[in-house]
């Protein structure tokens, strides 16, 4: 039987915990809790919401606009917290 998304995400979290040093995990958890307490999470756009137009550098440093990307088809955004 195929794993659910929730089960797959739990497996990814468990594997990450083995690779990320404990002191870094503590910082990540503390910052996540601070963000949740700040109320900013409730202000974030949700799945299916329309994001405002934006212009940002891509992974190669090239400036791209959401309008330009959307003209080529559907757009998926992925956010990550950093490199470790």
The major β-sheet equals:
2 strands, antiparallel
What structural category do the secondary elements indicate?
A: mainly alpha
* Apparent shape: extended
Instruction: Estimate the strand proportion.
Output: 5-15%
Q: Calculate the terminal CA-CA distance, rounded to whole Å.
A: 34 Å
List low-pLDDT spans.
none
* Overall pLDDT: 87
**How much helicity do the residues have?**
40-55%
The strand line-up of the biggest sheet is 1-2
**Radius of gyration from the CA trace?**
17 Å
Instruction: Quickly count the helices.
Output: 4
Number of strands: 2
Order of helices and strands: HHHEEH
At a glance:
By secondary structure, the protein is mostly helical. It is built from four helices and two strands.
3D architecture notes:
Helices cover 49% and strands 7% of the residues. The protein has a domain at 5-42 and 51-70. The mean pLDDT is 87. The protein has helices at residues 5-19, 22-38, 40-43, 66-70, and strands at residues 55-57, 63-65. The protein has a two-stranded antiparallel sheet with strand order 1-2. The radius of gyration is 17 Å and the shape is extended. The chain has 84 residues and is mainly α.
Using brief descriptors, characterize the structure shown.
84 residues; mainly alpha; single chain
């Amino acid at each position: 039987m195929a794993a659910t998304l929730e089960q797959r995400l739990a497996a990814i979290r468990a594997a990450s915990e083995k690779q990320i040093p404990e002191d870094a995990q503590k910082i990540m958890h503390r910052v996540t809790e601070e963000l949740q307490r700040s109320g900013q999470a409730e202000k974030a756009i949700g799945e299916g919401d329309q994001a405002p137009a934006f212009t940002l550098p891509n992974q190669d440093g090239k400036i791209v606009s959401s309008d330009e990307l959307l003209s080529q088809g559907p757009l998926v955004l992925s956010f990550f917290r950093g490199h470790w």
